[in-house]
Design a protein that fits this description.
The complex is a heterodimer of chains A (263) and B (309). Chain A is α/β, with parallel strands linked by helices and 263 residues long. Chain A has one domain (21-256): P-loop containing nucleotide triphosphate hydrolases (Rossmann fold). Chain A is 34% helix and 25% strand. Chain A is built from 9 helices and 10 strands. Chain B has 309 residues and is an alpha/beta fold. In chain B, 32% of the residues lie in helices and 28% in strands. In chain B, α3 runs parallel beside α5. The radius of gyration of chain B is 23 Å and the shape is globular. The chains are: A alpha/beta (263), B alpha/beta (309).
């Protein structure tokens, strides 16, 4: 195999996003020994875009997301997130992004107010900013009367909405959402997506994974990973037309069934 | 004899601070040989129900029987007859695939060979890895092993608690195909899922939310009982359209569904023309409105919003 250049520095030193692209990835690759978890993926995500990142279990989504979040150094290829290089500016990336997963998001033994204060503090917000955010979120999420309730006693749907709001408490350039709506009831799932649309209208870029194929339709563009590669990337409408499928479910099944490797 | 009978079951969790009622007096029956789905989101009470039926948890009120045996009095008999696959992977992580299966076969006084036919279809997919420790398996392989272990004593009723949660669309499809083949072998199956689209794969389903059953019927009958005309609406600028529709006082409900919004009007209209003209007055372009049949998720949301529930 051709020896690849280990990496090259990209991204401006100041972190200003010149092109309007919040993510750029070029031949981004991650190997674990002989196993190529992420295999030369290239794509760009624009400011304010809702970008769906789909793939079967084991396709390489989590590994790719970890590289983009500055948690894992790529084996080769280039990528920038919020204008920062994924090799050398991982700490700056971490400050510029929000992250929310289904499993861990909020401290259950802290109240709503304490969670907002905690995450606001971690991201370096001033006391005034934290107070303003707390009030804004309480009203926006209809949690005013619940501010001093422990998060563990909130219904799951409210937790997830609060977790999302906390993930963007520092107005990041981009927020990564890893299966944010798993197990949530169908009404709350839709309310959650309204929060996503709202954040995107305010210029926050959304990078989201999901197993609900109807949610893939809500994205501006969708990529589908198969065996570490991006097998398809387009608007849901174009993907359906190109593959002559009635729904994103069919598109996904059509592509993901090609997978050779297991999880 | 029905495979499962549940009558007025109430389950409460009492702590110093509060009492949470997980099941608020639910009743249903599962016929022998039926593939019965319990469909609802997290916190609906699905796991409590499964644990009561598998004799791992006691209900405060009500009665239940499995295969004709009472879940309290005859718990030993039930444990011999049911297979249970909990939501969390509960096999021995430091035993190999084969050792786990052998262990479960042995405690049920049987052998892998004796019931191999029943699990062949599923187990053969992980058999190449039988010397691997269970903890080192991928999610999909763990699921297949757990199902094999739940089946190895040839249970008459199989309880599967959210077997497809967090599983991708392809693996979910494969899992349901496995269930259909098991059903064909005469095993009664009670399966829970938070995925509404899986309801249509069951013979009958109970829609459950906050410890209450919203509806029990065949998926087709539930859809048919939707009770309102349902309109699929789309246009350019979908988020703008959502805000517009939600503000329109003639609209009873509006939910996103893939590329469309599903809209119910407060007063039924003969065709979609009224919707088209209203939203085109609001400057929306590329408008499409059509009447459609409700699916299970439409029904679930309508039932959730019904003040009687």
């Amino acid at each position: 195999m051709e020896k690849e250049k280990s990496h090259s520095v990209t991204g401006s030193k100041t972190g200003i996003i010149n092109s309007g692209k919040v993510i750029t990835a070029e031949k981004l690759t991650k190997r674990f020994g002989d196993f190529i978890a992420v295999d030369h993926i290239s794509f760009e995500v624009s400011k304010g875009e809702i970008f769906g990142f789909l793939g079967a279990n084991g396709a390489g989504k989590t590994t790719a997301m970890r590289m983009l979040c500055g948690l894992s150094i790529p084996s080769s290829g280039k990528a920038t997130v919020a204008g920062f290089d994924v090799y050398h500016e991982t700490e700056k990336i971490k400050k510029s992004i929000g992250y929310m997963s289904q499993k861990f998001s909020l401290y259950e033994d802290l109240t709503v107010r304490e969670n907002i204060r905690f995450y606001g503090g971690i991201y370096g917000l001033s006391n005034k900013q934290i107070a303003d955010k707390t009030q804004y979120l309480a009203e926006h999420l209809h949690l005013t009367s619940q501010q001093d309730t422990l998060v563990k006693s909130l219904p799951l749907g409210w937790k997830q909405k609060l977790a999302f709001s906390v993930a963007i408490v520092h107005d990041p350039a981009i927020v990564f959402l890893d299966e944010p709506t798993g197990g949530v009831d169908p009404v709350t799932r839709r309310e959650f997506w309204e929060l996503i649309y709202d954040a995107s209208e305010h210029g926050i870029t959304i990078f989201v994974t999901t197993h609900y194929m109807d949610e893939a339709e809500y994205c501006n563009r969708v990529s589908i990973m198969v065996d570490g590669r991006i097998e398809a990337l387009d608007t849901p409408k174009q993907l359906k037309e190109k593959m002559d499928c009635a729904s994103m479910d069919d598109v996904f099944l059509h592509l993901a069934r090609k997978a050779v490797r297991g999880e | 004899m029905p495979a499962v009978v549940v009558k007025d079951i109430v389950k409460k969790y009492v702590t110093k601070k509060e009492t949470v009622t997980a099941l608020q007096g639910i009743s249903f029956e599962v016929a022998a040989g039926e593939l019965f789905g319990i469909v609802g989101p997290d916190g609906a009470g699905k796991t409590s129900l499964f644990r009561i039926l598998t004799t791992l948890l006691l209900a405060e009120e009500g009665t239940a029987s499995v295969d004709g045996f009472d879940v309290v009095k005859d718990y030993k008999e039930i444990r011999k007859r049911v297979g249970y696959m909990p939501g969390r992977f509960s096999l021995y992580q430091d035993l190999t695939v084969e050792e786990n299966l052998d262990f479960f076969a042995t405690i049920f006084n049987t052998t892998i060979e004796e019931n191999y036919e029943l699990i062949k279809d599923i187990y053969s997919q992980i058999e190449p890895f039988k010397k691997r420790r269970a903890g080192k398996l991928s999610g999909g392989m763990k699921q297949k092993l757990a199902l094999s272990c739940a089946l190895i004593h040839k249970p008459s009723v199989l309880f599967l608690d959210e077997p497809t949660t967090g599983v991708d669309a392809v693996s979910r499809k494969e899992f349901w195909e496995m269930l259909k083949r098991l059903k064909a072998q005469g095993i009664s199956i009670l399966v829970s899922t938070p995925y509404m689209d899986e309801a249509s794969l069951c013979d009958r389903v109970a829609l459950i939310q906050k410890g209450k059953i919203l509806a029990i019927d065949t998926p087709a009958a539930i859809s048919k009982n939707f009770g309102n005309k349902l309109w699929a609406v789309k246009a350019e600028n979908m988020f703008g359209l959502l805000k517009t529709l939600k503000k329109w006082e003639a609209v009873k409900s509006c939910y996103s569904f893939g590329e469309y919004y599903h809209v119910v009007m407060k007063t039924e209209i003969p065709d979609g023309q009224q919707i088209v003209s209203y939203i085109s007055d609001q400057q929306f372009k590329a408008i499409e409105v059509k009447q459609i049949d409700a699916n299970i998720e439409d029904c679930f949301m309508a039932l959730m919003q019904d003040p009687n529930n």
